[in-house]
Structures are given as C-alpha cells and as structure tokens.
C-alpha cells in the first residue's frame, strides 16, 4: 500500500471512530450474543446483569448467576449478593459499567432501557433485548439461556415440561363457548385496556376468549360508554404498583359507576382481580399455573 493510500486509510479510521460509525459496526446489535452461536462458544458470560425481575428469574432458572439486578428483584430467591443497579425504569449506566458485565439482559418495553442498551453497545458491552409476550417467547429465550449455561436438564424442567402442561390446559378449553373479556391494568396514576401483545391476554385468548380491546380504538382511552357497548362477559383486573392505591383508583374510576354495575360481567360475578405473581410479573416456570388459574375462572358460574 503506497503512502498516499495508507494516509487515506488512517484518516478514514479516525473519522469513523470519531463519529461512532466504527463502534456501531463492531457491535451493532450487542456483540457475539447477537450472532447465531448465542454466546455459547465461550460458556456462560461473567457478571451478568438483569434489568427486570422476570429477566433475572429466567437467567437463574437457566442455571446462571447474577452480578447486578434492578430494585424489583431484591427479594427474588437466588440473587445472592447481586448489586442493585437502579430501578426498572431508571437503571444506572455507571453502576452497570462498573460491574464489567459480560452480558446485560434488558427489555424494549421500558423506554429508558432502550436508550441504555444503545449506550452499553457503544461501549462494547453485550446487551440484548429479552421481550416475553407469550409462552413461545419464554421458551425461545430460555432455550438460548439454558444452552449457554450448559443446563439442558433445566430446560426440560422449567420449559419443556411447562409447555406440555400448558398444552394440556389449552386442550381442555378448546370446546368452551367463546366469551368476551376486558383486561384492565390499573395503577394509582392511570388505567389501561390491555391488548393482544400483553402476555396475560395471550393466555385468555388461548382459552377461546375474545378481547374487546383488540377491536375498538375507543377503548384506547377506556371510555365507559365503549365498555358498556361491548358488554364483556369477563373483566380481568391487574393492579400495578401500590395495590391499595391501585384499588382505590379502580373503584373510583370504574367499579363505583352505575354503568359498570350494569355490565354482564358484574351482574354474573365475573369481575376478577388477577394475582400479580402470575399476570403482572411474567410467570416464567409458572406459566402452567397461570393457564390453570385462567381456566378455573372460565369454569366459574
């Protein structure tokens, strides 16, 4: 290579590095964990950080260990001495980087984590999105985790057996008559009608139920009139955050209203508050428990 070409090559390398293009090319989507080998070649990565309770739980179920967690996972069995690196919605970049993580598990469901992931990747740290909106999503990610940790035995127990149990529940529900439902997530600040992309709705959809929020844009704003017009046979309530405050908000905004009292679901006694551990948090190894719980609600007269 002549001196002119060499100088031009060095100039381009400097320019690309300065603009961040070269860094983006080195690890555009999370390093070797974005490739087909799934990071398995060198065994489990060191100092794994999970930025959500359910993600921490999944990694532990696959036989891994954790160096960092978010506040919501403090009481999760098996986290040991893992350091808290901020909250679910406000993870600390500095605290995560200080742990020299070999892998960070994040979710694109949280806007702050999307931005954080970009910052970590630019620093050469593997960070992957682990979004679980269905049983199939759970099984797919757990296959990768268990393979990485070399624990096919844990995949059998925590995934394969769980999927088989869920299939058995779905088979029991296939002859049930179709029933309309509304899934309502309520916190002290706001309420939202959940749609098909929420894992809890996927469970009820699998049991021959129809979500009224999937068809009507008027339910995006949770209009009582729209709910009354759709008249669901079941209302499924999930409290988020402080349960007492969420319950107060639900009672004030919905259950105390005359229109709510006239719903078919209310008159038939089919308004249910769902347990957080199965329908707010991802159920992970307890997916079959969530399916059984949902089927039991469908069986109530």
What's the helix-strand series? Answer: HHEHEEHEHEHHEEHEHEHHHEHH
Largest sheet: 5 strands, mixed
- Over the alpha carbons, how many angstroms does the gyration radius reach? 23 Å
What spatial form do the alpha-carbon principal axes imply? globular
End-to-end separation:
82 Å
The computed structural class is: alpha/beta
Q: Tell me the total number of β-strands.
A: 10
Number of helices: 14
Helix fraction by DSSP (H/I, runs of at least 4): 40-55%
How would you describe what is shown here?
The protein is α/β, with parallel strands linked by helices and 301 residues long. The chain is 46% helix and 12% strand. It is built from 14 helices and 10 strands. The chain has helices spanning 3-19, 21-26, 53-61, 93-98, 111-122, 135-149, 152-173, 199-205, 224-230, 243-255, 258-261, 264-267, 276-279, 287-299; strands spanning 48-50, 68-69, 83-84, 103-106, 127-129, 179-186, 191-193, 209-211, 234-239, 271-273. Strands 6, 7, 8, 9 and 10 form a 5-stranded mixed beta sheet that branches. The protein has a 3-stranded parallel beta sheet with strand order 1-4-5. It has a two-stranded parallel sheet with strand order 2-3. The protein is globular, with a radius of gyration of 23 Å. 36% of the residues are buried. The model is unreliable at 1-30 and 34-38 (pLDDT under 50).
Please describe the topology of this protein.
Blueprint: H1 3-19, H2 21-26, E1 48-50, H3 53-61, E2 68-69, E3 83-84, H4 93-98, E4 103-106, H5 111-122, E5 127-129, H6 135-149, H7 152-173, E6 179-186, E7 191-193, H8 199-205, E8 209-211, H9 224-230, E9 234-239, H10 243-255, H11 258-261, H12 264-267, E10 271-273, H13 276-279, H14 287-299
Parallel strand pairs: 1-4, 2-3, 4-5, 6-8, 6-9, 9-10
Antiparallel strand pairs: 6-7
Helix pairs in contact: 6-7, 7-14
